[in-house]
Amino acid sequence: MTSFATWQDIQRYVPITGDISTKKPGAYRATRGATTVFNALQMALAESYINGLEIPDGALRSIFDSCMPMLFQHYPALLAPYEWVLHETSAIASGSKDLMKLQYDLPQGMLNLMLGNGELIYPKYSMGLWDRGATTLEQSQRHMMDDMIEKMEIQDGDRILDFGCGWGCVANYILSKFPNVQFTGLNLSHEQCEFMRQKMQDPISILSSGRFTLVEGDLNDAQFGEKFDKILSVGVFCHVGNLTSAFAKLATFLKPNGKCFIHIITVRTPNNVSSVYTHKYIFPYGRYWRFDAVPQCDRDLKVVDRWYLNGANYSETFAQWLQNFDDSCDEIKGLEYGMEFARFRRIWRFYLIWFVSNFASCEGEINGNGQYLMVHTS
């Protein structure tokens, strides 16, 4: 115990390695300087690939498979490319319009083919659960939602708010299981809302049952005339910069005995992480909160249970998306991406290949998904 404490004390003076939040000023500045160099190297590799440098997939995977375990285990501070990644920011979310443009308002035809689009399971841009024996992407998404229903203890007749409801996949699936549940979806993406509005007019879709209400807008401006038994949010909090403020807002929507369920990408490292590459090309102002961050911000919603889902689940999900993306290139290359398809394809392949490795590294025990069940603190 004494030797461990001594090493922790020594690390406060040593740049780069260990917990950046405990660093002495000189070591902190040196660590941030090293991070700037690391950012430049990362972007040099990524943008060389985007601009046409031929790197075989196997070589790219080898780079990621070699680097990510070392970074996660020994140098996590290098994975915080900006100061805002390390702490809560003043705004609940930043760069929302850029996020919609880069990520969620892409051509629907491309997203349908990459993510999957079935009669019941609509596109769902979040982890599938493979631990329970799933053999297909759709099956893994069903297993993930069944697991979530069980943890939330959804009861028939519940009124549920889905904050950041995507294309309505979770709502559609849960409504199919519970004939008396009422669902409200809150979503900032106009294109996703248009997808759901079409489903709400389609008699085959359960979203047309009259039990689903869609609200297009931002959490900051949201107001509801009713309180909810349950609130769920899948994947959204990677784009939220202030957990405390967001939880305070969600708490106002809950009934006194209501529950809130949050599913996010998480890391079991001393600091939150992000990437200069994903910030520019994929998730503007996105960050992956460390696993302990949510319980430390639960002023208005208290965490009563939490789960870490091994990263192997998301690695396999990304592998399936990559395969679907590659298989559909001939079908989607004529769609509008705001750039040449060849460039768009390289941007997305770099991201997808990287994240297959990211979540598989360290046997999935550091970068995975976190789930939190929360209730009112009062």
Structural write-up:
The chain is globular, with a radius of gyration of 21 Å. Helix 12 (312-327) runs antiparallel to helix 14 (341-360). Strand 1, helix 8 (169-177) and strand 2 form a beta-alpha-beta unit. The protein contains 14 helices and 8 strands. It is an alpha/beta fold and 378 residues long. The chain folds into 2 domains: 2-85, no CATH class; 90-376, Rossmann fold, CATH 3.40.50. The mean pLDDT is 93. Strands 1, 2, 3, 4, 5, 6, 7 and 8 form an 8-stranded mixed sheet that branches. It has helices at 2-11, 25-50, 57-74, 83-86, 96-104, 108-115, 137-152, 169-177, 190-200, 243-251, 276-281, 312-327, 329-332, 341-360, and strands at 159-163, 182-187, 212-216, 228-234, 254-267, 289-290, 301-309, 367-376.
The CATH class name of the largest domain reads: Alpha Beta
Task: List the domain count as a whole number.
Answer: 2
State the CATH topology of the largest domain.
Answer: Rossmann fold
Low-pLDDT stretches are none
Total DSSP E strands: 8
Main sheet specs: 8 strands, mixed
Query: How far apart are the first and last residues' alpha carbons, in Å?
Result: 38 Å
In CATH terms, the superfamily of the largest domain is: Vaccinia Virus protein VP39
Q: How much helix, percentage-wise, in residues?
A: 40-55%
Indicate the overall shape: globular
How much of the sequence lies in strands comes to: 15-25%
Estimate the mean pLDDT confidence: 93
Task: Provide the CATH architecture of the largest domain.
Answer: 3-Layer(aba) Sandwich
Radius of gyration: 21 Å
Order of helices and strands: HHHHHHHEHEHEEHEHEEHHHE
